[in-house]
Write a structure and sequence with these properties.
- The complex is a heterotrimer of chains A (about 450), B (about 300) and C (about 325).
- With about 450 residues, chain A is of the alpha/beta class.
- Chain A folds into 2 domains: about 190 residues, Periplasmic binding protein-like II (D-Maltodextrin-Binding Protein, domain 2), CATH 3.40.190.10; about 200 residues, 3-Layer(aba) Sandwich (D-Maltodextrin-Binding Protein, domain 2), CATH 3.40.190.
- Chain A is about 45% helix and about 15% strand.
- Chain A contains 18 helices and 11 strands.
- In chain A, the strands form 3 sheets. In chain A, strands 2-1-3-10-4 form a 5-stranded mixed sheet. A 4-stranded mixed sheet of chain A has the order 6-7-5-8. Chain A has a two-stranded parallel sheet with strand order 9-11.
- In chain A, helix 10 packs across helix 18 and helix 17 packs antiparallel against helix 18.
- Chain A is globular, with a radius of gyration of 24 Å.
- Chain A starts with a helix and ends in a 5-residue tail after the last helix.
- Chain B is mainly alpha-helical and about 300 residues long.
- Chain B has 13 helices and no strands.
- Helices cover about 70% and strands about 0% of the residues of chain C.
- Chain C is built from 14 helices and no strands.
- Classes of the chains: A alpha/beta (about 450), B mainly alpha (about 300), C mainly alpha (about 325).
- Chains in contact: A-B, A-C, B-C.
- At the B-C interface, helix 1, helix 4, helix 5, helix 6 and helix 7 of B face helix 1, helix 2, helix 4, helix 5 and helix 6 of C.
């Protein structure tokens, strides 16, 4: 018996020792250094049609950077399904890339972990100054009153894509500017046997972007000014109900879209099955699916009444990708140099063209390529009628809980169950209660 | 494995114990008619249930894209091998494939070797802590993976920081993880199998002057080869199909097929025909191996685990 | 897959082996050899299973949110706070966990029951040779041999609302429903999950029962046949009782495997499962990874582990006693 006990004691001691090592978690506390000035690791988000396509876009640019600076950049394009988890594990362990792309809506959440390099005056000066960037884009780089956690890289906005041929057949003469007009046009389009509008009912992020805009248009916000969740505010309830109502009541979104989560609505649009699509920078995507640029038009996303603008006339979130530097990088100067390179006028033009996005760098926007009719709408929206998603630490939880609530409401609508103010309120209340107390 | 049972044909002659000559045309062992009918219906339905997804996978992988994005159709409008060509360029499938082969192969070999040693110790020796060992090892199978995903990850990172051995992000770390996942079941199965190998055999070898390890390798391992094959198949399947840990513990260069295939479904466009083609390519090595070795698997289970 | 089995409690420990085993090597060598043989397995179990579990338990007592994950040694202790949140069934987090737990229990019982039933029936029906038996057996093992994600992705493809095979057959061809149903969202998602789980789970039962059947002495059947027992009676009186020890292990393995299954619901539904199919493994994943609250997630996992320990222990106690009573 004695040896069993000895073995048990040994095992427990060993476990505790190893656990203590793990508890130390020490590596992440470092403040960054320049120990390996010749290499950088860069995690890019998947912007193009595939990971391989992205590598083809980025590789030549990274080679250019290496030629100029002698710094070799190891590129990894991380699929969206993995990106947040990978960032999270990198944060937890301190084993991450030096530079990485983040969805701009995650900025405040990731900022709260303290793992990203804050872009104070000094750091901004190293990349050419803060005022090179458009103010709207800077609004989505972290909590207000704090130094940004990231630098804008690509900017995007939502627009209404419409199929010209279907519109002509249905006798819709111009793209709808208000939701009422959209519903009206929808009836005519349905009479021709096409579906009016697409949605991605099971995609949490898509849901969030749309209900955020609807809330703005109803004069409401999901968070109070001091950052507390306020999901059950009657105006918010009303906004969510109107968005889901596009399927439940107005029937302009087909029930089948409730289970879409993989951009099937884009395919439906590209194939001419569906007349309208609310999407951010869909051009490259539509092209890869074989839809010619003449076949569709681009208009601003509808509002309740009047024209897009600020306040209740907002018609898109400020979408985009930001570039961040991990605080504990061992090539701090090189990382900043790389961010400077990627946000230079020259690279901004090349990259934003490749991804049909808008450069957040003001001087790069002047390029004629961004004045083409399709990008002009996006550029205009960003400049005048886009608002930043809530920049609160719990933003990523907000996306999950409210996004799920909307997904469930879509499922109800698809199953033919009524979506009432009561049922919307109940779902949102549950979402709010799941938010962290902080 | 069909050889292990003598079929009871209608004219079959029951041997022991009665040794009564059977003269009637229907032996008492012949299955009842109702049984035969029921069997026919049941097995047909079941085969249909099993076959439909397999058919969908195979046929969709040969369809042009238009066939898989539109309304479902049983028969393709045309056959194309295009998806099988495209999969290698849409995601770096070839690299994932190599990674999976290395990881699953190494995990299988190590798992089998370690399980053979452990099972031999438990089967042939009496020692203190034996029961504690078996119960502990087996109870790890109850752990929800999610409970130790993050801790394991942290542990690997810290071991890396402390010793310089890269476990996180490397194939080595993944091999260690997977081989341990299959270890408990493998040990348990091999204990059962080794127990069924007569002790006299290895004791005779020991008397002849072999050391215990030699006895294990020369006598017990060959006698238990079906069980060992079964364990290897199981270990390989475990490593080949795991998604959760692979998604956190690998990077671009070490990513496995399981994660790579997931990346497929999050592309901006969903190419169902390519996904099905990739699924099929990913499945063929395991399914083929499994079916080739299934007789050993059943024999291994029969003699070991379920005895 | 995750499989488990507890042979130990029902196995007769071989006794007196050590005394008869290696004779020539010295006493020390003889004593340490089994430990040496076990060492690699033991070290790996410690590294990959046991130590991480201890860390997981430690984490469950910490307030491990996004503010602390960067250096979780500094995360404040929260005592039993995470557990209180998890089991407060009047508050939404606890209520959701309870709901998810109940869904999982219902799902597991149905899935294990069906897998066992189909697997046993198929194995019994295929006990005797007939033409095409080898081919059929190979076919039946395919779902089990397929990597989980490829199988589930194929089912996702078939369960689509607009273009899926299931609606094509049920609605367009057989006209069983008045409009196409949703399988991947809403209430039907439970049945979708069950179908997939049974589809890829039953061959395992089939495999184990097939192996178990081969250990039943043929003489038993012959004797029963001579006693005038028909086919069905032989199945009831000989086959099923002889399978009891096999079933004891099989059911437990299927139970743990199904209960802890993460891959199937995750690949089928993605990061947020529909309420009707919100299995506890995905629920905990969501609570920890998606909302970045690893403390609560760990507490939930520990609770789950305790539940499984109690169920497994109770099950083994009951079935072993039942067997011992039956043996007498």
């Amino acid at each position: 018996m004695r040896s069993i006990r000895a073995a048990a004691v040994g095992a427990v001691t060993l476990s505790l020792a190893l656990a203590a090592t793990a508890c130390g978690g020490g590596s992440a506390t470092g403040g960054g250094s320049n120990d390996s000035p010749k290499t950088l690791t860069y995690w890019a988000s998947n912007q193009g049609a595939s990971i391989e396509a992205d590598k083809k876009v980025l590789r030549p640019e990274l080679d250019k950077f290496e030629q100029r600076t002698g710094i070799k950049v190891e590129l990894e394009v991380v699929p969206w399904s993995d990106l947040l988890n990978r960032i999270l594990t990198a944060t937890t362990s301190g084993q991450g890339p030096d530079v990485l792309n983040i969805g701009n809506t995650w900025s405040a959440s990731l900022q709260a972990t303290g793992a990203l390099l804050p872009w104070d005056e000094k750091n901004f000066a190293a990349i050419g100054g803060r005022d090179r960037f458009a103010e709207t884009a800077l609004g989505s780089t972290g909590a207000q009153g704090k130094d940004p956690a990231a630098v804008p890289l690509y900017s995007m906005a939502y627009a209404l894509y419409y199929n010209k041929k279907i519109f002509a057949e249905a006798g819709v003469s111009k793209p709808p500017a208000t939701w009422a007009e959209l519903v009206e046009a929808g009836k005519k389009i349905k009479a021709k046997g096409k579906s009016p509008l697409g949605a991605e009912g099971s995609n949490l992020s898509e849901n969030i972007h749309h209900v955020f805009v609807f809330a703005k248009q109803h004069g409401a916000d999901f968070f109070t000014a001091d950052g507390k969740p306020d999901f059950t505010n009657p105006k918010v309830v009303d906004a969510v109900k109107s968005y889901v109502g596009l399927m439940a009541e107005d029937k302009v979104i087909p029930a089948g879209d409730a289970e879409y989560a993989q951009n099937q609505s884009v395919s439906d649009f590209a194939k001419g099955k569906q007349a309208m699509l609310l999407w951010q920078t869909a051009s490259a995507n539509l092209k890869s699916q074989g839809m010619s640029q003449d076949a569709y038009g681009i208009a601003p996303v509808p509002v309740i009444s009047g024209a897009p603008g600020a306040g209740t006339q907002v018609n898109s979130p400020v979408m985009g990708i930001n570039m961040a530097v991990f605080k504990n990088t061992d090539n701090l100067d090189g990382a900043k140099e790389f961010v400077k390179f990627m946000t230079s006028d020259e690279e901004q033009k090349i990259l934003n063209k490749a991804y049909s996005a808008i450069p957040p760098v003001k001087s790069a926007q002047a390029d004629p390529a961004f004045a083409a009719p399709d990008t002009a709408v996006l550029k205009n929206t960003l400049a005048t009628s886009a608002a930043a998603l809530p920049q609160v630490p719990s933003e990523s939880q907000f996306e999950t809980t409210v996004g799920t609530a909307v997904k469930e409401l879509f499922a109800d609508a698809a199953a033919g169950r009524p979506v009432t103010a009561g049922s919307v309120e109940a779902k949102l209340r549950k979402a709010q209660q799941q938010m962290p107390a902080a | 494995m069909s050889s292990t049972r003598t079929p009871a044909t209608p004219a079959g002659r029951p041997a022991a114990p009665a040794r009564v000559p059977v003269t009637s045309t229907r032996s008492p062992m012949a299955p009842a008619r109702s049984f035969l009918w029921f069997r026919r219906i049941f097995l047909t339905l079941l085969a249909g249930f099993v076959l439909v997804p397999v058919y969908v996978m195979v046929s969709s992988s040969l369809k042009p894209l238009a066939d898989v994005t539109g309304e479902f159709r049983w028969l393709p409008s045309g056959l194309t091998v295009r998806p099988y060509i495209d999969i290698w360029s849409t995601v770096p499938l070839a690299r994932y494939f190599v990674n999976s082969l290395i990881v699953a192969g190494a995990a299988t070999v190590c798992s089998v070797v370690i399980a053979v040693f452990a099972a031999y110790a438990v089967s042939r020796y009496d020692f203190r802590g034996k029961r504690v060992f078996t119960v502990t090892v087996l109870s790890t199978q109850m752990f929800p993976g999610i409970l130790f995903l993050l801790p394991l990850f942290l542990l690997y990172v810290n071991i890396g920081n402390a010793t310089g051995i890269a476990l996180f992000g490397s194939r080595g770390g993944l091999i260690l993880t997977y081989l341990t996942f299959s270890l408990p079941f493998s040990i348990w199965m091999l204990i059962g199998y080794f127990d069924s190998v007569p002790r006299d055999l290895d004791e005779a070898a020991l008397v002849d002057g072999c050391g215990p390890l030699k006895a294990l390798l020369r006598i017990v391992v060959p006698a238990a080869s079906p069980g060992i094959v079964a364990v290897a198949v199981y270990a390989f399947m475990t490593a080949w199909g795991e998604v959760l840990f692979a998604s956190v513990m690998t990077n671009d260069t070490t990513r496995t097929l399981a994660v790579g295939l997931q990346a497929y479904s999050t592309l901006n466009d969903v190419y169902w025909n390519q996904i099905m083609a990739a699924s099929l390519v990913v499945s063929v090595p395991v399914v083929a191996g499994f079916l080739l070795l299934q007789r050993y698997l059943v024999a291994g289970l029969t003699a070991g685990a379920v005895k | 897959m995750t499989t488990t089995a507890f042979k130990e409690p029902v196995r007769q420990a071989p006794s007196g082996v050590a005394a008869r085993a290696p004779r020539r090597p010295g006493r020390l060598r003889r004593l340490s050899l089994p430990y040496l043989l076990l060492l690699p397995a033991l070290l790996l179990e410690l590294l990959v299973h046991l130590v991480p579990m201890v860390i997981g338990v430690v984490m469950s007592f910490k307030e491990l949110t996004q503010f602390y994950i960067r250096d979780w040694g500094t995360a404040p202790w929260s005592g039993l706070g995470n557990y209180q949140v998890s089991v407060d069934f009047d508050a939404p987090v606890g209520e959701a966990l309870l709901h998810s737990f109940l869904v999982t229990v219902g799902f597991t019982l149905l899935s294990v029951g069906l897998c066992w039933l189909i697997g046993t029936a198929a194995a019994v029906f295929m006990q005797d040779t007939f033409r095409g038996r080898g081919l059929l057996r190979a076919l039946f093992l395919v779902p089990y041999a397929l990597p989980v994600y490829t199988a589930v992705i194929t089912w996702v493809f078939m369960f689509q609302h607009d273009n899926g095979l299931v609606n094509h057959v049920l609605h367009d061809q057989l006209h069983l429903t008045d409009k196409p149903s949703f399988w991947l969202i809403g209430d039907n998602s439970f049945y979708a999950l069950l179908t997939v789980s049974v589809w890829k789970g039953w061959p395992f039962a089939f495999l184990i029962v097939t192996a178990g059947l081969q250990n039943i002495p043929k003489e038993l059947y012959e004797a029963a046949a001579l006693d005038g027992a028909g086919t069905w009676q032989r199945i009831r009186r000989i086959t099923l009782p002889s399978l009891r020890p096999v079933n004891q292990v099989l059911v437990l393995v299927l139970f743990l495997w199904t209960f802890n299954d993460f891959n199937t619901p995750y690949v089928l539904f993605g990061k947020s499962a529909p309420e009707a199919a919100d299995l506890v493994s995905v629920h905990i994943y969501q609570s920890s990874f998606v909302t970045w609250n690893f403390g609560t997630g760990s507490a939930m996992s520990v609770l789950l582990l305790l539940f499984l320990l109690v169920v497994t222990g109770g099950y083994l106690l009951l079935t072993s006693r039942g067997r011992r009573a039956a043996d007498v």
